[in-house]
Amino acid sequence: MFDTSVYRNLVLAFLALVAISQVYKLYHVYSNNNSQISALRDLTWSDINFIHTTDTHGWYSGHLNQKIYSADWGEFISFTSRLKEIANENNQDLLLIDSGDRHDGNGLSDVTVPNGVKSLPIFMKEDYDLLTIGNHELYLWENSRQEYEVLIEHFKGNYLSSNVQFKLDNGTFVSFGDKFKYFTTPNQKLNVLSFGFLFDFDRFNDHSKVTSIKEVIDNEPWFKEILKSYPPDKVDLLLLVTHVPISRSWPELYYLHTVLREFYPTTKIQYFGGHSHIRDFIVLDPNATALQSGRYCETIGWTSINLTTEKFDDRYSRTYIDFNIDSFQHHSKITTKSLFDTERGIEVSNLIKTTRKELKLNDPIGYVKSSNYYIDYVPITDSKNIFHLLTKKILPTLVTENENITTHDERIIIINTGSIRYDLYKGAYTIDSQYIVSPFENLWVKLTLPKGIAIQIAPILNDQGYIAKHLTPPHHMDDAENKNSLKRQTRFRYPVLDLTEADKQTIKNSKKKAKLTKGYVTFDDLGHDGDDTPHKAVVNFPIPNVVDSQELKKGTPNDELVDLVFYDFIQKDIFWALQQLNYTLEEDSNEPEFYSKKYLGTLLNEYIKDKGL
Ligand SMILES: *[C@@H]1O[C@H](CO)[C@@H](O)[C@H](O)[C@H]1NC(C)=O
Ligand SMILES: *[C@@H]1O[C@H](CO)[C@@H](O)[C@H](O)[C@H]1NC(C)=O
Ligand SMILES: *[C@@H]1O[C@H](CO)[C@@H](O)[C@H](O)[C@H]1NC(C)=O
Ligand SMILES: *[C@@H]1O[C@H](CO)[C@@H](O)[C@H](O)[C@H]1NC(C)=O
Ligand SMILES: [Zn+2]
Ligand SMILES: [Zn+2]
Fold first, then answer.
1. SS3 content of the chain, % helix, strand, coil (to 5)
2. Which atom of ligand 3 is nearest to the CA of 46?
3. Ligand 1: distance of its center to the CA of 172 in Å?
4. What is the fold of 364-482+541-610?
5. 308 Cβ inside 6 Å of ligand 3
6. Is 313's C-beta closer than 6 angstroms to any atom of ligand 3?
7. Distance separating alpha carbons of residues 353 and 343, to the nearest angstrom
């Protein structure tokens, strides 16, 4: 008995060693040797295929300081041209779709007045088959007007919006583009019925109007009339081009889906979503799926549908393509860059270069030498965290521009974490970097409060109970449900990954041995093999709703008056917190006073210019 158990343990130990060495070998293939990325997962082509972009926010130059997203819009145009050639050769269809949010987040779009004047003509060089509007086209009237007069004019019947309207000068509301489109695909001759929807957004400018999806369905007869006039035998596929998060925690598309299924019990339905800036793919039922394709020209989403197969497993594929030239050429199956580029693509790349020059986007203000500063790849307390940098170094440089207010010796400055849009990378710091990191132009305002109250405000706004999706960056939208982890600041642990057989084959076949770069490892309804490039997962640490910079003295009593400074954007939240603390402002001080209009981005510019980082 003793002997057999020793024997068994030896066998187990041996098996474990074999297993470990297998894993090690695979890891070795990935991590050794030069940095060429070449172990890519191939696209699955089928009867109908889609390329999807969303939330580009003006990033048409690509990511100048991050190699894995370093292609530009011209190269993207060459890429889609090459894919269309493949589709046509095989008599399959490929449709290009964009889900909106083309403003705010990059110098190319934001440095001009009105913003988008230079970037939209670049975006428009891509031949989209269908596109829709995002909330960032609706904050300012001039952006909505551009959308109506420039984009819709250019894309005509391909621009869909079923629930957003534009107010003409004579007061009449008209749809942004068309409410629906019924068309036949060029190669497979599939009959497609499509709509465009925006989530229930309520901060639109007064020359526009958003009606929620639910209201359109429940109150506007036109919608169901369209569904009735295109019965299931006339529709092979329903396409919903939306700027709505596809996540199960966001009910809008699920309500829409229930209604669509009443009219079309088994018709294939494909949803395209956006807004929360993540990669995701969801199976709503065996004949309906949804794709969301990230943000900021980091990701090109791909999905394909096999319309004839009986087996669910063969029906759908999805891939999240990293926005770089290696990925583009790999999927185009063209190894030579000069053969890959199209004339039109080169033209657009040149247009981007001259536009950047004209807008002085490359002129350095200063240099970031010490480190990259991250939103959430390191904990909030880490010196490489951008909020650590802001609260410790940048915010303390804020001084009031209002000569008529009384200030106090002690001060707390609060910012919402969503006021920072992107990491700050090492290299030249330019006006472009400023718009990338902090594009928002809000006013600083001030309240005078007892210290004992002021110090409790940030903790209250960060309490688990306070659901404030507008305060954090969009990709943390679902954090509210996971707020417990915030307290611990621990790493989210990914499950142990088994490489699929296909992955192993890919690695075996890759000519150059690939190093695993840091990037997205996406978990969705089809598994975790959706990213075209196998990555070492970046970790997104939880981040709070707000952070504060405290310039306080030790030992002063709690009733000592201090200045509480914040963006007017979060005024409602600050007042809510005061209510929770049962604190009532004096009659004569219940409106915050103007403090400064030196935006966060400007403070950062000045700091980097004067002191460097
Ligand atoms: C407003 O202008 C549009 C487009 O020119 C026209 O179709 C519409 O009838 C006008 N509405 C009114 C109330 O004059
Ligand atoms: C999916 O669609 C096919 C026809 O396209 C139909 O035969 C099948 O029943 C549908 N599956 C479900 C679960 O509705
Ligand atoms: C669809 O799937 C079936 C297997 O169920 C396969 O025979 C067929 O080739 C597929 N179609 C395409 C276009 O890949
Ligand atoms: C505020 O007042 C309510 C009702 O009087 C009380 O329940 C609550 O504990 C108070 N909150 C604080 C922070 O003092
Ligand atoms: Zn967005
Ligand atoms: Zn959005």
1. 35, 20, 40
2. 13
3. 6
4. 5'-nucleotidase;  domain 2 (3.90.780)
5. yes
6. no
7. 16
* Residues 75 and 63: beta-carbon distance below 8 Å: no
Better-scored residue on pLDDT, 2 or 278: 278
From CA 296, how far away is CA 492, in angstroms rounded? 24
Q: How confident is the model at residue 237 (pLDDT cuts 50, 70, 90)?
A: very high
Residue nearest to ligand 1 atom 11, measured at CA = 172
Q: Please tell me the number of the ligand nearest to residue 169's CA.
A: 1
Q: Is the pLDDT of residue 187 over 70?
A: yes
Q: Which two tokens stand for residue 587?
A: 């009659």
Give the pair of three-digit tokens for residue 224.
């169901």
Q: Report how far ligand 4's centroid is from the alpha carbon of 579 (Å).
A: 9
Ligand 3 atom 3: residue of nearest CA:
309
N- to C-terminal Cα distance for the chain? 68
List, chain by chain if needed, residues with CB within 6 Å of any ligand 4 atom: 581-582
Please give the distance, rounded to the nearest whole angstrom, from the Cα atom of residue 142 to the centre of ligand 1. Answer: 20
Domain boundaries, the chain: 1-37, 48-358, 364-482+541-610
Kindly state the tokens that stand for 357: 């020059």
Q: CATH fold of 48-358, please?
A: Purple Acid Phosphatase; chain A, domain 2 (3.60.21)
User: Residue 116, by phi and psi: left (phi above 0), alpha (psi -120 to 50) or beta?
Assistant: left
Can you tell me whether residue 566 is helix, strand or coil? strand
H, E, C per residue of 78-109: HHHHHHHHHHHHCCCEEEEEECCCCCCCCHHH
Q: Which two tokens stand for residue 43?
A: 């696209």
Q: Can you tell me the mean pLDDT for 282-308?
A: 97
Distance CA(185)–CA(205), nearest Å, equals 36
Atom of ligand 3 nearest to the CA of 306: 1
Contact 175, 164 (CB under 8 A): yes
Q: Which helix H or strand E contains 209, and what residues bound it?
A: strand 208-210
Residue 93 alpha carbon to ligand 2 centre in Å:
22
Q: How many CA atoms lie within 13 A of 533 on its CB side?
A: 27
pTM for the predicted model, two decimal places: 0.87
Return d(Cα 275, Cα 372) in angstroms, integer: 26
State mean pLDDT over 239-250: 96
Distance separating alpha carbons of residues 492 and 521, to the nearest angstrom: 13
Edge-to-edge, what's the strand order for the sheet holding 288-293? Answer: 180-184, 191-198, 237-243, 268-273, 288-293, 279-285
Q: Is the CB of 35 under 6 A from ligand 1?
A: no
pLDDT digits (tens, 9 = 90+) for 445-484: 999 999 999 999 999 999 866 667 778 888 887 765 444 3
CB 468: neighbour CB atoms within 10 A?
Answer: 17
